[in-house]
Amino acid sequence: MGVEFLTMESYYQYGKEFDNVCFPKQVRDLAIKVIEPILERNNLPISHLVVATTCPDSIAPSVGQEICRYFSQAFSNTHTIDIVQGCAGGVTALLLGNKFAENNNKAVMVVMSDAAKKACDRDSKNYKIFGNGSFACLLSSNNSKKGLLHSKSRQYQELTEVVHVKLGHDADVILDRYEEVRQNPRKYLGLKMNNDLAISLLRKAKGFYEEFIEEINMEPDIIILHQVNPKIVAYLEKIFQINDIKFINVSEIAGNCGAASVGIALKHGDESLSNKKVLICSFGTGGVITAGLWQF
Description:
Layout: E1 2-13, H1 26-41, E2 46-53, H2 63-70, E3 79-84, H3 89-102, E4 107-115, E5 132-142, E6 147-155, E7 163-165, H4 171-177, H5 185-189, E8 191-193, H6 195-216, E9 222-225, H7 230-240, E10 246-248, H8 251-254, H9 261-268, E11 277-284, E12 288-295
């Protein structure tokens, strides 16, 4: 039994013209932009909807629930799973979607959506590297040899503080502590990245990759990594430029779109994926690295 990517869509906003694009339910609306064209092209029954984001519009209703309400007919009998796991959640969603597709005869939709720029304080040095973006795909089981070949996830506990987004249940504690938070809440509650820990996590990536390859005794034809920022992705590209492995890099055109970054890169390489082994790896929040190797 195999699992095939039936169709994919991506969307991103990056650059100065999107610096002030900020509005309610933005994560949901980014997701709609990639779900709508897929539903227009396909009328397959969908058993599961798996949604990954770093920072949802609200804790409840979740992004997945908002999507189901918006597309009430398409998802009327669909199980919805929301993953709020930071950047690593993009690959986690694909892994979970693949498992659901293996075990039933209906299609599974995986969605990644992040308004990453909205989560940042505009005065932060990290603000310019982030974009807003989304990705969606349909997975379906068949009798082919396509699908997930191997997966691996590891949390480096000493690096769990690498990224924080405090817009959650602890926000009231911070609000009580800082009166000025009301003037610029994202300065205190928005995305924060510890660059020293980020570099340490990147150093772990090479060892993680070597372990991954040793476990399966197989190398990929194509590598897609979380699109952290152009400098870091360029550095990683040099590390992984081995054995003629193709490296997909969209960081300069799409920015870091959080959980959606690997999906946007995957769609960007769409025409080159056929009959290739593709390693998709995301990392970041919580000091987590998660990867899967798919046969396309």
